[in-house]
């Protein structure tokens, strides 16, 4: 089995960190990720810099990223102005978020869920004309910090609506880390039935220690694209306590041990996680940098 990892630390990771990194440090994070073998990087967000100051330098970051064959850079886009900026900065992909509940959508995007669907459709059409890969992410697909449980039928109906705009990829996001493997399997199966021609992707947080189990469940259900954040940094600044992106290195440990191919080398990702912790002023949440690999590569095996 081959699985693609989308590295989201430069965007979803750093956007929720109180420390704002310099452009050179962000570019270095991206360079390290590419050198480790990651080929899809969610690098920047084209949002109002007043609302998310950590992402205010998107154009400068994109101007500095290494351009290599096979490497694709994504930007998060919320509106036409953001798409204009993304096109000018030279991204390869856009990611547009549609939130599953009105309460969270109003706080996150200043609009209702239905308005978010309409906004996505317009952005998708423009991005298609520009030749960009188009991902639509269903945020709060497993639960909302303001409305609580989100029904399976609600999410599946939303998937049906966003699929009408012809996305290349639909991502299911557990924005606040409340999902469980049974719900993952159900939503993935439902999404595959509604939009069989669209690639499915999953984005999990480990807020309640279910993120890695959910990732494995998604793979077992047929998903072949997973988001992960080096060091396990980040979360959503508009969702209370939405910390805990699953860590790229910790996920890689499981995938490597399971014989699943990703093309990513784990050792440099561990090193980058430790380096990030130094920049951010505290150890990152990822566990592998503390526990180490098994078997220990520095010890001869008997």
Offer a quick outline of the entry:
With 302 residues, the protein is an alpha/beta fold. The two termini are 29 Å apart.
How would you characterize the overall build of this protein?
- With 302 residues, this protein is an alpha/beta fold.
- The chain has a single domain, classed as Aldolase class I (TIM Barrel, Alpha-Beta Barrel), CATH 3.20.20.70.
- It contains twelve helices and eight strands.
- It has helices at 9-13, 23-35, 58-64, 80-89, 102-109, 113-129, 152-163, 181-194, 211-220, 248-257, 266-280, 288-291; strands spanning 4-7, 40-46, 72-77, 93-99, 133-139, 169-173, 199-203, 225-228.
- Strands 1-2-3-4-5-6-7-8 form an eight-stranded parallel β-barrel, surrounded by eight helices.
- It starts with a strand and ends in an 11-residue tail after the last helix.
- Belongs to the HMG-CoA lyase family.
- One of its GO terms (biological process) is ketone body biosynthetic process.
- This is Hydroxymethylglutaryl-CoA lyase.
- Keywords: Lyase, Metal-binding.
- InterPro entries: Aldolase_TIM (IPR013785), HMGL (IPR043594), PYR_CT (IPR000891).
């Amino acid at each position: 089995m081959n699985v693609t990892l989308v590295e989201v630390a430069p965007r979803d990771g750093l956007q929720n960190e109180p420390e704002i990194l310099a452009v050179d440090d962000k570019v270095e994070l991206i360079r390290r990720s590419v050198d480790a073998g990651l080929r899809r990087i969610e690098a920047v967000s084209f949002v109002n810099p007043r609302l998310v100051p950590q992402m205010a330098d998107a154009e400068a970051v994109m101007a500095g990223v290494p351009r290599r064959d096979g490497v694709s850079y994504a930007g998060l886009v919320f509106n036409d102005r953001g798409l204009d900026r993304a096109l000018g900065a030279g991204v390869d992909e856009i990611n547009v978020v549609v939130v599953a509940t009105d309460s969270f959508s109003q706080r996150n995007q200043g609009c209702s869920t239905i308005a978010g669907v309409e906004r996505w459709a317009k952005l998708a059409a423009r991005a298609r004309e520009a030749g960009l890969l188009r991902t639509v992410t269903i945020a709060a697909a497993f639960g909302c910090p303001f409305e609580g449980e989100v029904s399976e039928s609600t999410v599946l109906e939303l998937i049906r609506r966003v699929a009408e705009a012809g996305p290349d990829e639909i991502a299911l996001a557990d924005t606040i880390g409340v999902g469980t493997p049974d719900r993952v399997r159900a939503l993935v199966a439902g999404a595959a039935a509604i939009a069989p021609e669209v690639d499915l992707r999953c984005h999990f947080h480990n807020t309640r220690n279910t993120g890695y189990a959910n990732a494995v469940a998604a793979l077992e259900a047929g998903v072949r694209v997973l988001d992960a954040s080096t060091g396990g940094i980040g979360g959503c600044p508009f969702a209370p306590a939405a910390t805990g992106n699953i860590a790229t290195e910790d996920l890689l440990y499981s995938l490597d041990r399971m014989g699943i191919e990703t093309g990513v080398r784990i050792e440099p990702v561990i090193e980058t996680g430790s380096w990030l912790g130094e920049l951010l002023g505290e150890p990152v949440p990822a566990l592998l940098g503390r526990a180490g690999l098994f078997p220990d590569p520095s010890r001869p095996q008997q």
